[in-house]
Amino acid sequence: MACIVCGATQVAGLAQWHQTCPGCRYESAMLTGAINGQNGLAPDEAERERGLKALRQENFEVIVRYAMRHARPGARRLLDVGSAHGWFLEIARKQFQVLGIEPDEAVGKRAAARGLPVRTGYFPDALADGERFDIIVFNDVIEHIPDIHSALASCHERLDEGGILILNIPSSRGFFYRLSKLLARVGWRAPFERLWQKDLPSPHVHYFNPGNLRQLVAGQGFELADATELPALRAQGLLERMRCTGDMGPVMLYAQYLAILCLIPVLRMFPSDIIVGVFRKKAAD
Question: Mind listing the pLDDT tens digit for each residue in 127-174?
């Protein structure tokens, strides 16, 4: 299979479903999901909220500041693709006129019931003809989309001139992802599979690093405006976050939990598992 970034032939990775590119280091997975179906392990959404909300809210505050810094003067319309529980919308609507699109019908309806402007469906199909934005944001979403070229092309089409695309994604350079690969090579595949969200309703199908992400997005008519890393872990909510996949026994769960707690103070010395790219739509030639 050809690499979607550089076109080189991908080679077998660490599992039958995993491939890597020897050229640009892009990684892919032949995993399928069923967001509104019954396949895979359904996460406990209450547990997931307790585990993720505090960390996500802190990171979303940072992303909104980047949006304000790089959006053109007068920019107001912001689209959040894969808006989930609406946590990002709650923060971004203090500065922008926001709209969320969420493919999970149950999650999207719960967010809308709280008064948030959320449409259930898929991007860009859930948008009206001619509906355009100043800013489009994907928070932990675009790595789940198999046809990422079409998604990026739709972003380019739906952004006004000078519009901003913000991609908040997991990084293949991150400490925990690289550790999971090392563990998989010696026979312990569970952490590697969990980071790919294997057997969950919406697994990851892409893993990028800052370089190949920039190369991919540039091919769709964008230029890099800024980039940063965000914290991937905090002690508060960590245990609940690990529980929400439901695929570990209590002994293994607490062993991993204690090990990660010990690592948190030294993680700043290593690349984070979360990267953010801010891309500007290039002016038409």
Answer: 999 999 999 999 999 999 999 999 999 999 999 999 999 999 999 999
HEC states along 69-116?
A: HHCCCCCCEEEEECCCCCHHHHHHCCCCEEEEEECCHHHHHHHHHCCC
CA gap 202, 107 in Å, rounded: 13
| Residues whose CB falls within 8 Å of the CB of residue 206, separated by 6 or more in sequence, listed in order | 4, 26, 27, 28, 29, 142, 143, 145, 148
| Closest to 277 in 3D by CA, of 230, 231, 228 | 228
Looking at every residue in the chain, the average pLDDT score rounds to 91
What pTM was computed for the model? 0.90
Question: 35 φ, ψ to 5°?
Answer: -60, -45
CA distance 183 to 277: 28
H/E element, 44: none
CA 178 – CA 161 distance, rounded (Å): 38
List, in order, residues 6 or more apart from 131 with CB less than 8 Å away. Answer: 158
Averaged pLDDT, 212-225: 98
- Structural domains of the chain ordered from first start: 44-189+211-281 (3.40.50.150)
Q: How far apart are CA 11 and CA 112, in angstroms?
A: 43
